Amino acid sequence: MRRTLCSYTISVAVELESSMKKPEVEPEILLTEARLSSPPADALIKYYTFPGWPARSVRCANSNQVDLAHTVMLAEQGILTPNVAKTILQALIELRGTEPAAFPIDPLRGSFLLQVEAHLFSRIGEDIGGRMHTGRSRIDQGTTVRRLYERNRILDVMERLNQFRGALIEKATRHSRAIMPGYTHMQQAQPWVFGHYLLSIAARLAEDFERLTQTYARVNLNPRGAGGLSGTSWPLNRHRTTELLGSVPCWRTPS
Are 104 and 76 members of one domain? Predict the structure, then answer.
């Protein structure tokens, strides 16, 4: 019987040895050092990197969720050994408890994925931490994280919209006999009741809810496994990561 992401990670945390030694970390070559002739300018860091961090940090939980699901799938597929997967999951579980404001940021490292990568390398070493990226790219990773974040925000808006509709309907019931003038072309027309007026607003909000439902279906897709362009030769189980991320349909890619 397959375990859910929550039960899987909890069992891993319980089984981990508290005496696990922290590996030695070799000096790391930053992405900017590998591809650019100079580090980011101070002005770029001051006016772009740091101001933009709050907008990216709100997706920390979603990024962690994607990392956990991908690692669990790699372990179940036999791509990662149980010991390696256990070590990675333990580090990810610890990271999940870190508040975004408390997460250490190094502007020289670049994107949030690279910030998380650096954190893992410092905890479990590059040889083990780097295996979490097996079969994936920063491209499908970032897209998956953004879709999870947007999916959850859509659900938040839909919940508030339903609360607003409920309040309007309750208020309309209380004022079902409150007479008021109805207007057409900015002039008084026929008499009607205030409750009817409130229900007209609730009806419009129902149309908005339907639009959000359609938008949710388009956003709620799992691009995990697409890699940087057209997939990967690793035997990934996209349906398993889809299940772990919330039973969303797979986004088809060329075979």
Answer: yes
Look up residue 67 and give its two tokens: 């990392």
| In a domain? residue 160 | yes
The CATH code of the domain that includes 172 is 1.20.200.10
Helix pair angle (112-124, 60-76), 10° resolution: 60
Tell me how far apart the alpha carbons of residues 238 and 236 are, in angstroms, rounded to a whole number: 6
C-alpha span between 233 and 51 (Å, rounded): 38
DSSP per position, 75-125: HHTTSS-HHHHHHHHHHHHHHHTS-GGGS---TTT-SHHHHHHHHHHHHH-
Contacts of 160 (CB under 8 A, 6+ apart): none
Give the DSSP letter string of 179-202.
EEEEEETTEEEEEEEHHHHHHHHH
| E-strand stretches of the chain | 179-184, 187-193
- Give dist(CA 49, CA 106) in Å, integer: 10
Q: What is the pLDDT of residues 109-134, one digit of tens each?
A: 777 788 888 888 988 999 999 999 99
List the helix and strand counts (H, then E) for the chain.
11, 2
Q: Is residue 249 included in any domain, yes or no?
A: no
Distance of CA 68 to the CA centre of its chain: 12
Query: Model-level pTM?
Result: 0.77
Domain range for 91 is: 5-134
Q: Are the C-beta atoms of 142 and 113 separated by less than 8 Å? A: yes
Instruction: For 5-22, write each residue's pLDDT tens digit.
Output: 544 444 544 454 444 444
The CA distance from 62 to 155, in Å, is 15
